[in-house]
Specification:
This protein has about 800 residues and is an alpha/beta fold. The strands form eight sheets. Strands 17, 18, 19, 20, 21, 22, 23 and 24 form an eight-stranded mixed sheet that branches. A seven-stranded parallel sheet has the order 7-10-6-13-15-16-25, sandwiched between helices. A five-stranded mixed sheet has the order 29-36-35-31-33.
């Protein structure tokens, strides 16, 4: 048994430790995506065409039929099939094929927020009548249809006649679960099941029903109905609602047990566009890939091409730079920021000194005092990992000292709350050196404190023979000084695929967000936590993404004719830049893009930077895609890339980024503005906030519009003999104003090589890939494990 245990541990951490082994085995087929560009001319014949492609590398109709996983034909061409590496390589060389790539597994990026953004509970009363015609598609873990957030009680209007979607039946779900609010629910399990086997057993429904809670949370944030007195056991009590309460929702379940395959994601994009959604919200991501080897980028390109706005989460790997995902320019990439609310859980020591921690602690201790111990002081000497007992890692502490005690644990290894609970402990004081602005639920009474308070608590423990403490339930605190800050976990730019496109685009509330939840899902994420709730408070760019979707739906309800790029521009140019003096805003637009969304302002932006498939096709030329490839992707059969290859920096984007500048700078860009103001006759003047040491000229310096939807262009030139060496990036802004509207574009310039920025920006910041202080593994702990296993 000892040998088995050692090898089990070895296999589980080998990748993390950077250890590898070469395993000889025959080539095995796995699911690949074969992407063939724009939608086929005859969608009904597409599957037959794809089967002919497969037949060139597979033998016999039966093998072709077994290999096929999905056929894509509604908004783009392609298929998913089980292929070996050799077979995939052969198909990639065939005419009409843009790319072939393995179907990887992506992950989910996981009340008061709409008030904070300026949309009061009465805002929707002034919506145009078209508000109930807006349809939001949500790609996620499904939906809990019985939630009040999906009630159609206040939606008397019939479902829009253009809607072509449906509600599919499955485990504990039927078409009767849909209504005038939740008008569609589909599931896409094929890719997952090809990878991991049949979806059976507890913990998941093979249906659109949400067993995880994540999908219900994001859908209700984007467009949920108004629910009064919503709370998590009294925390954050208020009215839970979506950005556009009258919008319809269609749920597309692509994530199973928290995993979402490329094959399933693409199938959902294809169906959603065909069903007739207006917007798609996707709080899912993986590592950045070439745009046409990325399922979300591919699906979004063709969705936008068909007039569907797509927002995606930037990821939860901050504050490290180069971590932003979903960075294609046709996507709206969303960072996460805080709101003016946090949840404090006080700790009272036996000496009567109180300390305020942060947590979603809804559990009351039954006794007034419990013994207080430090995990570090009660180490299990027989454990090979005894030196790491301060992390309260399983097996490192003396269990008799844990029972009925409150234990001080340091974050960094596993889930201390689960370890202490399993040992019969009463509660946990968790020490987190990173950030105390994000609240998390735990499986027993817990409060998170910083290292300064921890020193005082440990000093008290060592000062008395019988230290005791109490952990009080959390209370809701509203504090204007908290906001807005980029969340520590929110992934930062630069855009690792195309650095001259600034990512993320924008930020929205993603910290401590209350929204609908699946009552069968654990509140804390621990299997031992049996509490059930209809609303939960969680954090992540998964939460900020549907805020932008809801804001975009709000804008579209006023301007149904606007393109996805126009809506995106309106949100970006009316956003509010974050205060650079706050700690986690120091990395500026690399963290928050254009700033915090302002949905009401975005309904009247004055001017927009619009873009369509032709603009994106020229952008692809600038990335060295061939004319033939762009023809396949765009569907423009006569398209040719210009002889003079366009610069990607000239994409008509609402922000400006100039990357990889060495020494002197002399760069010109062009942008085109479209007049969408209510007054056709207006004159805009440019205001320049030049980056430090850079001379900026704009020509012309004023733009006179005399008709609605008139388009006028300007050139901006950026010059510098040398750039300040002490700064890792230079930021500024170009702003056009007519006295009523303010149309602001952030400007970001890199005065160093692309690779040199990373170390400078990360200095002083902790690096963590998760938005929770209770999970993860410390470097010193991993070092010891590797040393034990591989010496």
């Amino acid at each position: 048994m000892a040998c088995i245990g050692k090898w089990t541990l070895l296999m589980s951490i080998a990748l993390v430790c950077g250890c590898s082994a070469i395993l000889g085995q025959s080539e095995k087929r796995k699911v690949h995506i074969v992407y063939m560009g724009n939608s086929p001319a005859n969608p009904e014949k597409a599957t037959s065409l794809y089967q002919k492609v497969l037949a060139k590398v597979l033998s016999g109709k039966e093998e072709v039929a077994r290999s096929m996983v999905y056929s894509y034909a509604a908004s783009f061409s392609g298929f998913a099939a089980e292929l070996s590496t050799t077979e995939a390589a052969s198909i990639s060389k065939m005419p009409g094929v843009v790319s072939v790539f393995p179907s990887s597994v992506k992950k989910l990026h996981t009340t008061r927020s709409w008030d904070f953004l300026g949309l009061s509970t009465t805002s929707n009363h002034g919506l145009p009548t078209g508000g109930s015609n807006i349809i939001i598609g949500v790609l996620d873990s499904g939906v809990w249809p019985e939630s009040e957030s999906f009630s159609d009680k206040y939606l008397p209007d019939p479902i829009p006649s253009r809607w072509k979607g449906t509600c599919v039946s499955g485990d504990s779900f039927s078409s009767s679960n849909c209504n005038r609010k939740l008008i569609g629910a589909r599931m896409f399990p094929n890719g997952y099941e090809q990878n991991f086997g049949p979806i059976t057993g507890p913990g998941e429904y093979r249906s659109p029903r949400d067993a995880e809670g994540h999908g219900s949370h994001t859908a209700s944030t984007a467009g949920g109905s108004s629910v009064k007195h919503a709370s998590l056991f009294g925390l954050a009590e208020g009215t839970a609602r979506g950005g556009t309460q009258t919008a319809r929702i269609a749920a597309y379940k692509v994530c199973w047990f928290g995993s979402c395959t490329d094959a399933d994601i693409l199938a959902a994009f294809d169906e959603a566009v065909a069903d007739g959604v207006d917007l798609i919200s996707s709080s899912i991501g993986g590592s950045p890939q070439d745009y046409f080897s990325d399922s979300i980028a591919i699906g979004a390109f063709h969705a936008v091409q068909n007039g569907v706005f797509v927002s995606s989460s930037a990821g939860n790997s901050g504050p490290s730079v180069y971590t932003a995902t979903n960075v294609a320019p046709w996507l709206t990439t969303v960072a996460a920021s805080s709101i003016d609310r946090k949840f404090t859980s006080s700790i009272v020591l036996g000496n009567s000194l109180p300390y305020k921690g942060v947590a979603l602690n809804t559990i009351s201790l039954s006794n007034p005092w419990y013994p207080l111990v430090s995990g570090e002081a009660i180490r299990n000497a027989s454990s090979p990992l005894a030196n790491f007992s301060k992390y309260c890692y399983d097996g490192t502490m003396a269990l008799d000292k844990v029972k009925d005690s409150i234990v001080v644990c340091y974050g960094g290894v596993g889930a201390p709350d689960a370890t202490v609970l399993a040992a019969g402990g009463a509660g946990v004081i968790l020490v987190d050196s990173f950030d105390k602005s994000v609240g998390f639920a735990f499986s027993l009474p817990c409060s998170v404190v910083g290292t300064a308070d921890a020193k005082h608590i440990l000093k008290y423990i060592n000062s008395t023979s019988f230290p005791v403490a109490d952990i009080l339930p959390s209370i809701t605190t509203v504090d204007d000084s908290l906001v807005p800050q980029t969340a520590i976990f929110s992934s930062r730019g630069p855009n690792i695929i195309t650095p001259d496109i600034l990512k993320p685009d924008i930020t929205a509330p993603g910290v401590d967000i209350l929204a609908a939840w699946s009552p069968v899902s654990s509140i804390s994420g621990e299997s031992t936590d049996n509490r059930s709730t209809s609303f939960n408070i969680i954090s992540g760019t998964s939460m900020s993404c549907p805020h932008v979707t809801g804001a975009a739906a709000f804008v579209k309800s006023f301007h149904p004719e606007w393109s996805p790029a126009a809506i995106k521009s309106a949100l970006m140019t009316t956003a509010t830049p974050l205060d650079g003096d706050k700690r986690f805003n120091k990395d500026g637009p690399l963290g928050y893009g254009s700033g915090l969304i302002s949905p009401t302002k975005a309904t009247d932006p004055g001017l927009v930077y619009d873009a369509d498939t032709t603009d994106f096709s020229l952008f692809l030329c600038g990335l060295n895609y061939t004319s033939e490839q762009v023809q396949l992707i765009s569907g423009f059969s006569n398209f040719s890339c210009p002889e003079e290859v366009p610069s990607v920096i000239d994409l008509n984007y609402p922000s400006i980024a100039i990357a990889n500048v060495q020494g002197s700078l002399n760069k010109s860009i062009i942008r085109t503005l479209t007049n969408v103001g209510f007054s056709g006759n207006s004159t805009y003047t440019v205001h320049i906030q030049a980056p430090k040491g850079v001379s900026v000229t704009v020509s012309p310096s004023s733009l006179h519009f005399d008709a609605p939807y008139q388009r006028l262009s300007f050139h901006a030139n950026f010059q510098a003999n040398s750039l300040p060496s002490e700064q890792v990036y230079l930021s500024g802004a170009l702003t056009w104003t007519d006295g009523l509207h303010v149309v602001r574009s952030p400007v970001l310039i890199w005065p160093a090589s692309f690779t040199d920025i990373k170390g400078k920006l990360e200095g002083g910041f902790p690096s963590t890939g998760t938005p929770t202080p209770k999970k993860g593994i410390s470097k010193e702990f991993l070092h010891l494990l590797c040393k034990m296993l591989f010496i």
